[in-house]
Write a structure and sequence with these properties.
With 137 residues, the protein is an alpha+beta fold. The chain is built from 3 helices and 7 strands; from the N terminus they run ββααββββαβ.
């Protein structure tokens, strides 16, 4: 598994906070049966969100002909989405969360365990940079 974390370095004397975290993952070597099944994908995404502390507000999954699925679960913290190419054994996964109630890495690990890809690339991007002046001691 390749893991990269992109973090901007703040200015001296400034504390940087972010509005959200965005995990962007690429799963290779996936089972065609798993990633071409919208019901299976909906179930694992929803379960991973709940396990991570998220709150589901809506969902939409579509299976293309002859293959492939696009799905999104809207959450009060933002969204989790998948796009699949079963003919290539590939699945793109986005987990974007804001606030502190949902841990995107918990959701990621749950999805990873269910899909069991052969190879993964994942990056974490901090979204919505906020800077605050640190208090002097």
């Amino acid at each position: 598994m390749t893991l990269k974390k992109l973090t901007l370095v703040g200015e001296v004397g400034m504390e940087t906070r972010y509005l959200g975290k965005h995990l962007i993952a690429e799963f290779y070597g996936c089972s065609r049966d798993k990633i071409d099944n919208p019901e299976f994908l909906r179930e694992i995404l929803e379960n991973s969100i709940l396990k991570a502390g998220g709150h589901i507000v809506g969902r939409l999954f579509h299976r293309f002909n002859p293959q492939g699925v696009t799905g999104i679960v809207a959450i009060s913290e933002s969204h989790v989405s998948v796009h699949t190419w079963p003919e290539n054994g590939y699945m793109a996964l986005d987990i974007f969360t804001c606030g502190s109630e949902m841990d995107p890495w918990v959701a990621y690990r749950e999805i990873f365990e269910k899909i069991k890809p052969g190879k993964v690339k994942v990056i974490e991007i901090n979204r919505g940079e906020l800077k605050e002046v640190k208090a002097e001691a």
